[in-house]
Amino acid sequence: MNKKETAEIKKNFSDKSGFFIMERILTGFVDAEKSVRYQNTASCLTMSVEEHDVYDETLKKVLNTNVGKSFVEYEFPNEAYEEGKPQDILYKLLRSELKDELVSENFLNHIANNISYEGPFAVLTAYCTYTIRKKDKNDEFAEGEDEIYRYLLTAICPVNTGSDGFVFDSFNNEITKKVNNELIISKAPSDGFLYPVFSNRSTDINHVMYYARSASKPNTSIIEDILGCTFVMSPENEKANFQNILKSVAGDDLDYMLIKTVNDKLQEVAEENKNETDKTVIDCGKIREILEESGVPEERIQMVEPVYEKTCGTAPLTVSNLIETKTVLTSPGITVNIKPSAADKIRTSVVDGRRCLLIDIDDPNIQINGLPVKLS
To answer: What is the rounded CA–CA span in Å between residue 256 and residue 330?
Structure first.
């Protein structure tokens, strides 16, 4: 799923949409020992508006349009559809429309038995339908061509007893310490997933979307053990791997200007593909091209392929995860933050035998700690 497809599902995840119905909700509570303590399926058509709104608010957070970072698509391996495997479990749950108690129980136990999670948590799974309106060659809605996208949206929510503090007791007219022993289910899911995906405005049962509230800290046990997919790098890991490739290939030629030039080249790639709905990626060949254009010597360019394969295998890297939005120069006791518009004003040089950082000052009016100073 790309951003446009995700945005379409999220926009229509509402009773106000004439094309969407959230039919049933499966709820489960898993204690800190990973035992399923509670399971229930409720009809969304008969629950109170207040309760329905809480489910809407919580589940909608999983439909994160930050695709490729917080919301990542994974492909099931071929064996995932075998009996008892993750895709098989999800597909049976989808086909049951959350009406089969044993299928739902199997799903919750599968999560409880395979997840790595600190503390108790709740599982909220909604069975939803979305009517996909198809258009003809005249860009008009075609009669009888509608498709029903049936999907499961799951939110995994942490549970805690809330915060202790002081409250005003109006009955006794005094301030007392609050004691809260109730287990509160957070409306902010830590993780979640959408199955099947909405791809090319149609259903794709061979892929699943995984959501992580913290894009830098995905729960790999959900990806690998619950969904049965192969984990891909987080944005932070992608950037770290790219930096390792750059350091290994450039070696002693890695300086300020090379780093700036490579970042400029990455921004050019992003700009050229800004209207594409799919995320922009680069592979070993593109990195080789960028380094060649940035002036890295040919003998070091030959190292790109083996270094890339050792670092990333065959996985491409997401361009938006590699671009630096500002330049930060650090040395013991010194940190200089440089905006992109001022990157050309920085130079490194050797002056009187000492390595120096030079900053071009066009405007003589500068401030230090908020105070105006005069440059002589």
So the answer is: 12
CA distance 277 to 291: 27
Quick one: which of 346, 201, 168, 181 has its CA closest to 260?
346
What is the number of other CB atoms lying within 10 angstroms of the CB of residue 117? 18
Which residues lie closer than 8 Å to 316 by C-beta, 6 or more apart?
281, 282, 283
Tell me the average confidence (pLDDT) per consecutive run of 10 residues in the chain, 376 residues long: 92 89 96 94 93 94 89 89 93 97 97 94 96 74 79 94 75 80 85 95 94 89 94 83 93 89 93 86 94 93 93 86 86 84 82 86 79 76
The dihedrals phi and psi of 60, each to the nearest 5 degrees, come to -65, -25
Instruction: Judge whether 125 and 189 are in contact, CB under 8 Å.
Output: no
Contact 151, 23 (CB under 8 A): no
Structural contact between residues 65 and 6, judged by C-beta atoms closer than 8 angstroms:
yes
Query: Under 8 Å CB-to-CB from 220, ≥6 apart: which residues?
Result: 116, 231
CA torsion angle 369 370 371 374 (round to 10): 80
Distance CA 367, CA 120 (A): 53
For the stretch 194-251, pLDDT in tens is 999 999 888 999 999 999 998 878 899 999 999 999 887 778 888 889 999 999 999 9
Distance from C-alpha of 282 to C-alpha of 273, rounded to nearest angstrom = 12
Q: With beta carbons less than 8 A apart as the criterion, state whether 59 and 49 touch.
A: no
In sequence order, which residues have a C-beta less than 8 Å from that of residue 33 and are 6 or more positions away? Answer: none
47 C-beta neighbours (distance < 10 Å), count = 15
pTM: 0.71
Domain spans in the chain, listed from the N-terminal domain onward? 3-231, 236-322, 327-373
Tell me how far apart the alpha carbons of residues 338 and 327 are, in angstroms, rounded to a whole number. Answer: 5
Reading the block at residue 53, the tokens are: 């709104």
